[in-house]
Amino acid sequence: xxxxxRVSSIKVKLGLLVAASALVAAVVASVGRLAGVSPWMSIPVxxxxxxxxxxxxAAGMTSPLRQMTLAARRMARGDYSVSVPAxxxxxxxxxxxxxxxxxxxxxxxxxxxxxxxxNVSHELRTPLAALTVVLxxxxxxxxxxxxxxxTALGQAERLSRLVEDLLDLARVDAGKAPLSTxxxxxxxxxxxxxxxxRADAREVTYEIEAPAELVVDADPDRLxxxxxxxxxNAARHSPRGGAVTVRAGADGERYHLEVLDSGPGIxxxxxxxxxxxxxxxxxxxxxxxxxxxxxLAIARWVTDLHGGTIAFLDPLAGSAGARVRVDLPLRPxxxxxxxxxxxxxxxxxxxxxxxxxxxRPTEPDLAETSGPSPANPTPSxxxxxxxxxxxxxxxGGRFGLFVGAVVAGLLGGLLIPDRNAGLGTVIVLLAAGAxxxxxxxxxSRRPSGFQMVCYVLFALLSSVAVFRDAEWIVALCLxxxxxxxxxxxxxxxxxxxxxxxxxxxxxxGLRGIPWVGRTLTSVSGNxxxxxxxxxxxxxxxxxxxxxxxxxxxxxxxxxxxxxFVPDVRPDTFAARIFxxxxxxxxxxxxxxxxxNPPRIDRSERASQPVANRYExxxxxxxxxxxxxxxxxxxxxxxxxxxxxxxxxxxxTYAEYVHQGFGQLTVATALTLxxxxxxxxxxxxxxVADRLWLRIALGLLAAEALVVVGSALYRMHLYQExxxxxxxxxxxDVFEAWLGLLVIxxxxxxxxxxxxxxxxxxxxxxVSGAIALIGIAAINPDAWTAEHNIARYEETGKxxxxxxxxxxxxxxxxxxxxxxxxxxxxxxxxxxxxxWLEWNLGRERADGMTPxxxxxxxxxxxxxxxxxxxxxxxx
Length: 874
Prior knowledge:
By secondary structure, this protein is mainly alpha-helical. It has 32 helices and 7 strands.
């Protein structure tokens, strides 16, 4: 039962849905704000919880509509065995019930249509075959002519009766069967009907038991048709020499007719089915056969037309055979209620063997069952939002991944809040990575070479938090670790694919909602949902209750718990809850990204090269000329000396080399775009075209590499003049990485048509990750401190304020400073973290950061008495 199933209005449901979602979002946001949770974490968690509440309350509201669409498609293909959930009390539930009724009625009509075609074909074939044989014998002069003609006449009369029955059936279905009543002597009508049936020469006896002078109002033709059909049916199912009895009697304002035979009778389970068109039983054929299967259906229609009822009853005591009774009013109603010959209603529907289904072509986008299944998910509104970019392939629920995400979330909530990055952070990252890797393994049993490289890089980048204390390099490495893990999940190849992967990760929280629903349904649908919930609650209760009892009873166990279990204080409880939900959400989103990755690298249309060579060569030539002008200016500045530079620009050499470093970095990055565009638009059909492409792009790449070298040289001079910082080191590596990509881009452009450039995106990702690992490996804060100390030894210049802000990674290098400067740059050691904050940088700094003592003769703040150039700020 869905939460809002009993609400009888869709408008009220939507109102409750909006109100509940808004209320939950407001409460969660307020708790996060009061607990001091950072907005970058509280906002996603608030949105995620609000969406979860919305999904919970909206469960079942629109699924009948989507399933009706799916069922309507199947019905259009001729499959009427569909049904949709229709348990709600609102308008959607009413529509679902009406849809199911319509599907059932159409299915019955379709089945009767197929039965009609099959039975009519069979009934027509028998007399036509016999008639054909007789005529062939007459043509060949075989047999007695009067006897043959008598046989042919019998078969023709049989065909005539069948046609008359079919016409009656058509008039009933068309509603064009009027009732013309008059006074009818029932006894005389029965004698006439018996005489008509006796003329068929069936070897049975007929008995009439009817009161004298019983006159009723009825349509004599229709009533005769009713009685004749009943008598004919009884005679055909009676053995030779058997007796057929027709009885009539008055019952107040009604009268009845009963026809009894001496045949095998009809089982109670089959008594309603024989009134269906062509509803003859298999036993009937053995007892005479020859019926069309329409007689009793027409008898029921005549009974309904007169406002009566007809049914097979148990035989009389001491007798056997079938007993059919018709109850009719003495005066039929003016507007009788007709029951269709097709039994669409419950009182006439009985279990029938399923008719043979005609072969139908299958459509891959349609489910083969009426409800959702892992292989054929119910279409949702998200399919319209994401379209072909991210289709829901119907991957089944993965409860193990869900549990893994829960475990990662719990670890995140227990190990990360109120701690610096360290061993606890690495544990959470590796647990999250294991869940994502497991998700990828469920899709592809054997990871590709690129995936293996990404997994190794993820482990190396994640482990930086256990070796380095510098927050900036740890943060960069962790972000890159997540990026390579996600790209391994999606299989991104191009630079655009890598960027789309980053965008897809937060969107996975929305796109994966149906998948999470199928995951939870896979547990509850197998009957394990309540058991899992019960087991979880009981286990947690056992852990908390007995854990508290034993930890308070035994001091040794209590010390172990204090050492290995995080301290969950009330003031950090809300932050831990937010972190738990946040980590759970991002890990589950990444797992869905691995299980059902989007189509981020869809094959693009082949670029149409330009018709004329100058169309691409001229723009590239302009860029080459601009690069050449810049390089000439650089050479003039270098060889002209600082006096010429000052006279020309008014800048010192140090100011000159710092002035345009950012622009050079952007120019290097844009060179990659120029190379990519030229390689796509340049024709390569002739040898001359390929030669011009290689010359132009090779010259451009060479100039770009010279610019990279110039930028690195400028940064070196600037660092020598103003000192070394972490940002300047990172920019050096970034510029060198861009130069490497320029070379790779040139190779990809020249190799177009051989290997293409699809590998360039992965090369950029992997090389960038390796570059960050290299920066972390050289211990950037220690490298910065060592170079500034060497500069101090050469020039006597040092910025103690900047060095004081370095992480613990730089402490061993800073210990080389003189005592007075060491007291200025080494902050007091006030850390109280536990083993979950451990990393190598902080471990090496332990014992090296002294308690602060002011310089001799001064009680002032160290920043006021220590030397500072204040020039390290970028």
